[in-house]
Amino acid sequence: MEWFANEAFWRELYPYVFPVERVAAAARQVTQILALSGVIGGAVLDLCCGPGRHAVEFARRGFAVTGVDRSPFLLDRARESAGAATVEWVQDDMREFRRPAGFDLACNLFTSFGYFEREEDNRRVLCNVLESLRDGGTFVMDLVGKERVVRQGLGAQRTEFADGSVLIQQPNVNQDWSRMHLEWTVVKGSQSRTYRFEHHLYSGQGLQDRLLSCGFAEVQLFGDLQGSPYGSDASRLVAVARKA
Question: In terms of domains, do 121 and 70 share one?
């Protein structure tokens, strides 16, 4: 089973992947995404929407929103969080989801790209998004960049939570630094459990080249959703790609 298809992974790690403060940041991030993209209305695709934190915020601002995710558990959480906001929730694999000329803006956020071991599958996702955008539409991606991982190194990180649990994150990479392997260990009281997952690791230039090769007309890179310049000291790798 591919790691992301394991529902127990998302269910058991949910409090650590989506803590309260991360959910609360969605409103600010949507404001930043709209400023970067220049989109002021229309239809939005949130691809790999998870528990819907961005999809719901877009809907509250009057956009017609479709949230797509493979996980039934995460989509259930998204429906619970939507409240009065109207969002179309779709359970599908991002390698398969396409809606030709259906959206003015597409988003793929929080390093929800590069999951697939075969790089042609990851490229297929980008081509699907291009097909799903209307002419002049914009695609915003947000992920961890290879430059940051190289600068930061591969040391373990420790995070403590209010309930007393501790999360220890240990990253590793393969020999050519093309794929990142992560080991998360949750320690709670006398018990601990370790989870493993992985994704491709892209440099700014590498991601830009892939988007252009799929047919995007223009790709800009930024160091965060605020629009900071992208470089070796960037905190994130954000790509804004436009369809002609």
Answer: yes
